[in-house]
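From the shared-data thread, chain only:
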Amino acid sequence: GFDEVCIDGPGPDLTVWEVGPAVEPYAVSVGQDGSSTPVGTDDGSVGTFDLAGSGASHFTSVTITALGDASGNTTGADIDAVECLYAATHLVTGGGQITSGRRVRWSFGGNAGQTTGGAVGQLQIVDHANRVSCHFDVIEDLAFSGGEAESPDASADTASFDAVGACTDGTDPASVHVVIHDGSESGRTADTVEVSGRFTFSGVLSGGNFQVHES
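Structure, as tokens:
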């Protein structure tokens, strides 16, 4: 495993080097807290893998499984090194929804982490009433504050950041300021989110969970 939490950033998030006299294919999965998510396969040599579209926003471990060759033989890939490209010292991950009556009014999810190269991450917000979805893939001015968070343990329980992206209604660029508070592990009825800018709303999560992490 990694000492840091690896986060989904722009482009590839993981590099695997396979060496040896034969080029041997392998499959890669990433995980955290006992979970495992496939992120792709490679024919051998140097493989790069992107978390985008996998369903995983961050990971602390990598599992590599050798695949059979064209004849069905499995001799084992010779893995020389594995590199996490976006190791975050602090990050917030998760998502959820806010309802109005019995209907979902807002849903959202993503991650934002502080790496040695600056803030990275992505955020998706859906305005269900107006049928507009925005994807934000530039994270700026990320800061952590507040009291201690539990499960996982962290010295701060609140994350704030600016995000820039584009929306399905043609708004490009679109920007928002986001404040997320990790109230408890359950998330529902405890975690809060405040959004201003392209969208303006705030409230307690009626479903979902946010987690603030610290490496």
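The first strand starts at residue 5 and ends at 7.
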